[in-house]
Every structure is written in structure tokens, then in C-alpha cells.
Amino acid sequence: MHSNRRLMSFFLLASLLWNTAGAASDEEVWGGLPPPLMSDPPDVVPNAVLETSGGGFADQVMELVNEQRWNNGALPPLKRNDLLDTSATGHSTNMGARNFFSHCDLDTNTSPGDRAENAGYHWNYVGENIAAGQSTPESVMNTWMNSSGHRANILSSNYRELGIGYYQDSTDAANVRLDQDSNCVSESTSGPFYYYWTQAFGRRDNIYPLVIDREQYQTNSRYVDLYLYGSGTMTEMRFHNENGAWTSWQPFSANVADWQLSSGEGMKEVFAEMRTGTGTVYSASDTILVQGLTGTFDDVPQSYWAYASIEAIAAAGITGGCGGGNYCPTSNVTRAQMAVFLLRGIYGSAYIPPTASGTMFNDVPKTAFAADWIEQLALEGITGGCGSGNYCPDSNITRAQMAVFLLRALYDSAYIPPTATGTMFSDVPKTAFAAAWIEQLVREGITGGCGTGIYCPDAPVKRDQMAVFLARTFDLLP
Residues 6 or more apart from 74 whose CB is under 8 A from it? Predict the structure, then answer.
């Protein structure tokens, strides 16, 4: 049967044996040679350009490999390795340019292990998948994952690192030499295939890689997850960004969530040191491209309706978010938080209020969160509390209360708005609490209500709404 798509895989294991003179010898153990797979003709686009913007096909294959490893038991991610890339790219290029398809180079008789060594990768374990005829990373990965031998390589726990190579030959012909039993002898010819793919897997026992975000090519966030090899061997670890300071040593953990990269866009690098119980230190690093940052906070993309206002109050130092790189835009604002927001809006990010006495409100002891800010807000006449000598610091602030707070902060404690008409919002009659303040807030251009003809005076203020109120009150928007 004539076939235009074939692929092969093998498992090559080795133990690197060092003698007293410091020389090394490779003992190769060959096993698990699944037969070539034969299927339909290649999904050929002979004149297609394989590279795409924002990461080439090799980068996409890398991401798909680690996606499969995660989906099949949350396996550790493989680290991209330049030396294995050289080995894999060389083999794909040679297969396409010299018209053969085999794990063995049919002209030089070099094996995958030989190619890795020649590239400078001194391995303890090495493996290889090859394929031909698939025009996209998705199609070649689908083919490999549907073959037991190739799937086993991709999901193997023996490997820590991966190199990827491909080659496109738009003039490929039906003269490709095939070696179907991996004995370095061509038994037949076939083709054309147009696309040649190689995955070179490896592990070096004295190398413990660091992997950022499961080796994604790029991210639009400054917060990434790290994976460190070394479980069972390492006891401590520490990190730093490029040009940054080391963290303190901390107990070793393979998974580190929400590591913060250095500010700005571009290629970022994280460095790690791992220490064994006997004090031996190992080093590792990884890079990731930061592009298209969504803003200051991970949970507020540029498309978010209040993005500009949230960015504005963050830039003014009114807020630093809710923790973990987030702003929590849909969380309610408490009266205690409001005190901080307002005073920073009035006086700037460097403002520090006097120390609280703890005697102004029954429910605000001097050690309470924002006690200093709450008492200062009262001293400035912006609030008198919530009644009966209390401030209700943990209560959510309503949209009606917000109107009073904002206008007093904008003007002063003596400010009195014009009498309400009761005609501006259907849910704010002229006798309603804070009706005059609500209508004046509209006249100032700070709010337009919460919907068609309504203000929702009793609804709690969300943090995204608060950002809009503050940005407009203190004229923070461009």
C-alpha cells in the first residue's frame, strides 16, 4: 500500500557511567518500537509558511505537549531546551533535504542519542518522536497522541526537557527513503510529505529545570505560575527576576503560584536556586514574553467597562487592589474601605492620617482596620457615623450614602446641595434619603444612575462602580 503519511517513535534509555578518570560511556537500551502508522495523504499546503506571529510552530507544539501532560494526570511540564532544539531541528532538516524518513540518519547512521550528544546535550535519558505530512502543530500532535508509542513518550515521567524541530519542503517528491524497522537501511521510497517533524526528549540527572506557566511562549499578565524539578532531592529554594533581588530561602515546593514578573512588557526571566539538605546549590532559569498587558490588575482586562477608572485610581495611589494582583471589581465596598478611598482621593497617595484614639465610635477600636482613616473622616465632617455612636465599618456602603460622602469630600462638610426636584429618577422621590445629594451628583457628571431612569439608592456600591465615582469626583480621567 502506498502511503503519504508515516510516523515512527522509539524509546532510548541510557545510564551515564562515569569512571574514576572522568570519562563517560553510553549504554543504549533500545525498546518499544511501534510500527509506522499509515493513513490518508498529508494535509498539504505546499506553499504555506509554517511560522506564525507571536510564536512559531515549534512554540505551539511545546505548549500542546504540556497541555496534554496536564490533561493526563497533571504531569510536570517539560522545559524547552536549546540543545535538544538543535538536535531536533537538524534531524527534521536532514530528513526533508536529503529525502529520508527514519530515526536513524540513513546517510550518517547517527541515532537520536548521537545527535543529542553532538549538540552538546549529555543525557541520562533520551527519546524521539518523528512525523511527516502534517501541516500544523495541532494535526501532528493529534497524530502522535493517537499512537500508543508516541503518546508514551509525550507523557513519560522519564523526561524533563524537550526540543522541537520541523522542516518544510515545498518541492518534496516521491523519492523519500523509508526505514520502517529502524535498522538504518532503506526498504522503499514514498512521498511527497512536505512537512517533517521531530520531538527530542531528554533528561539530565544533574539538571533541575524551572518552567514558567508550563512553558507558554507568552502571557498578558505579570503573574505567572512556576514549576521546579527537584522534589525529593531539594529542601529549599529562592527566586529573583532579572535585575531583581533574591527572595529569602524558603522550603522547597515544586509548584509556586502567582510569582510576579518585573514590570512592563518584553522578555522576562526568572532565576531560581535550589539547595539540598547537604548544602549543594543548583541553579535554573526560564523566560517568557510579556505582551499585551491587560493593565494593573489581572482581573481587570482592557475590555472591562470600568477599566479606565480602575487604572486611574490605581495610578493615583488610591487603591492597590484587593491582593494577589487583583482588584475584585464586583466586590462590595465597606464603609471602612470608603474612608481610605476618600481621604487618599482628597490628599493623595502619600497621606497618612493621625493615629486613632479608639474613642470616637463604639465599634471602631484604635486597633481596627482603617481606624485612623475613619476617625479622620469624621473629624473632617464627611461622616457622622451610622447612628447610636457607631460607624458600622463592615457594612456595605449604599449608592445613596455614597452621594453624600462624595460631595462632602469634593467640597467640604458645610456643603448643602440644592433642594431635590424628585423628577430625576423614578426611584428617588424628593422626600427620599439623600435625594438632594443624588440629584446634585448627577448634575456634577459623576453618575447617570444605574439604568433607565433609576438610581438604585439602596444598592451596595461595587468596587468597579466606586472607581468610576472616585475618578470622576477627583478628576482623574484623561
Answer: none
